[in-house]
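Recall from the previous lesson that a structure prediction takes nothing but the amino acid sequence as input. Here we apply that procedure to Relaxase/mobilization nuclease domain-containing protein from Pedobacter endophyticus. The sequence below is the only information supplied.
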Amino acid sequence: MIVKILWKSKTFRAVRYNTNKVEKNKGELLKVSGFGALEGLSEVKPQDYINYLSSIAARNRRVVYPQFHAMISPKGRSLGKEELVTLAERWLKGMGYGDQPYLLIFHKDTRNNHIHMVSSRIDHEGKKISDSYEKIRAYKVLNKLIGKDEEINAESVLSKALQYRFSTHAQFLLILEKHGYAIAPVDGIYKISKFGQQLGSIALSRIDEHISMGNSSQDRRSQLKQIFEKYRPITDSRVYPLKEKLAGGGEGRVLGYSSLLCEKLSSSFGLQFVFHFKNDKPPYGYTILDHSGKNVFKGSEIMSLGKFMETTPSFQLEMLPAEDSEVKTSHCENRFAPDEKMLLSAPADVNAADLISESSEGFSIADLSFGFDISDDIDDEQILGRNRRRQKKARTNTR
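The prediction returns the following tokens.
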């Protein structure tokens, strides 16, 4: 389950956004609270709600962005609209908005049932509702409501990570990072945190001791090599970027790499592929998290990275359309990520693309950026050269 604080606004445009969903039968207005006399009217227009919220916001002109817009989304259809209403009410109270005017709108147009909450950051006395550490508090309140204990969860993840066989500190840290944790070495220990809060720690010496007990299984390594050799000739191994979906149908930063071979081996053999990259350059290496065998392998020990960059001679395929590849391969990175009980942020099986598409201005849980450079067939200088000729100016550039 995730909670997300959505876009800022000087006006209350989130009201229109959500009522438009209702008009298109993609949403349902489930509760209106704190709107005074408006609640007694039989027919209220969206502009009426906007005017009411704006009148309250006008009591404190120092707040530039008075709109409060948030969303809670569980896994799939695990919670119905009635349960989401109750959860949203309690969450708003925990965040300080329990006595504020607010709208609760249920959305059913994505793979995950979710509920939007629209309110004002200014109360009836003209005071601003505290937004101090808002994003961190959002999860603390939610986790408390659904019975999660962050420190217990972190300890559970740490214990599970130590069940894997790995040969370097980096491989061990990668397991934790894939569970959404940040790790920092301080005075001989790794501090484990999430959303700015330290939740646990482990001594570096303990990791060294674990490594000295034995590296990844040699038998499993040999087995995986055979599996790769079997499936690569019949499955396209070429990697392609998975891009963030933006509002309006556009594409944003690259979130990861995948291939049809990755997807096949993930679903059939419990493997998770993590391609390593820097800035906007293609991957320079990869790691395999073998969840079935509890191993972490350097990718080149199993198959060279170069084979993910070329087409298998015996298996020629047309390049997949970007939109199709994104949908088909989303499981490569996510299918074997930890379940919801081990996460404090967005679980791996929640369709984040559905959530991101609703607001490109909301905060992101992860920030990955890499991709291929694509050059135009003709450079800008040549175009400018043609323009100069049209203006009877000297040509300064040729091909």
